[in-house]
Amino acid sequence: MAISDLPTLSILRTKMQWHQERQHVLAENVSNSNTPNFKPRDLVEPKFETGSGAVGGGAASLQMTRTSASHIAPDGADPTFDQNGRAGFLTRPAGNSVSLEDEMLKVSANQMDYAAVTSLYSKSLHLLKTAIGKG
What we know:
mainly alpha; two-stranded antiparallel sheet; 2 helices; about 40% helix
């Protein structure tokens, strides 16, 4: 079995590639912040199936459950959380709807997440080297 076939390393590699591509898309949003009629874009985060290492793009919803009678019962509302609290972005008279503050926050969060995934990947490789006696 090759190291590239290990599900954990494959997932981490996919996540690093997604962060790299997202950084490119966010940089385009920032660079076009003054372009008329430009609409910001973003990438859908990959979802990983539990146990299989398979990657999908769909967003799964997490249902609320009551494990005790003293817990508050869920109402009939949608149990998923709203990802974007704002109903829409402000659009300038030229038609541009890029918010530099929001884009820079996304860039910063993306950089921190990429650093975390990179650290996990290198530590996983170090553990494998230690396990085979070469680390």
